[in-house]
Amino acid sequence: MSRRCWAEGVQIWVDADACPGVIKEILYRAADRLRIHVTLVANQMLRTPPSPWIRALQVPGGFDVADNEIVNRVTAGDLVITADIPLAASVLDKGGLALDPRGERYSADNIRERLSLRSFMDELRASGVDTGGPPPFGQADRQAFANALDRLLQQQRPG
User: Which pLDDT value is given to residue 54?
Assistant: First the structure.
């Protein structure tokens, strides 16, 4: 397989504060293999492997600071890895692509439904209902993400 560089200027942004380590490892390998820039955005210092394709961007702590930084920097065609549904909606509005760490792609067809469900769950929690959380992240999730990332990057790869 040739080691062509990804489309000029297009990159992957990672909402890194809550991103599982195994997902970051998959992204590091993809960055080096496909020569695509991956930027992890977090409100804490992150260690990344030495690579010209991988960098970490530390932002100040605070509510949605990392999300806002990603939205401000993302451009059409960029890919954002996030479990944050409002962030994914903002990315889609800017012409970007969004994928969650469990391998589910956000799209214009599903984002409004996900936002509504998130709002409903927030209302339940605010009224005292224990809604639980997502299931533990497992091997099947890791594989689903790797497969979805590979499909998405192959679809978006130039020429």
Answer: 97
Write out the H or E segment, with its range, that includes residue 159: none
Structure tokens at 141: 């999730």
The answer to whether the beta carbons of residues 156 and 79 sit under 8 Å apart is yes
Q: How far apart are CA 90 and CA 95, in angstroms?
A: 9
Give the H/E segment covering residue 114: helix 111-126
DSSP character at residue 4: P
What is the dihedral angle through the alpha carbons of 56, 26, 95, 122, rounded to the nearest 10 degrees? -80
pTM of the model: 0.85
Alpha-carbon radius of gyration of the chain: 16
Name the nearest CA neighbour of 56 among 66, 94, 142, 106.
Answer: 66
**Percent of the chain at pLDDT above 90?**
68
With cut-offs at 50, 70 and 90, classify the pLDDT of residue 11.
very high
Write down the pLDDT at residue 45: 93
- pLDDT surpasses 50 at 115: yes
Asked if residue 132 lies in contact with residue 139, where contact means CB atoms within 8 angstroms, the answer is no
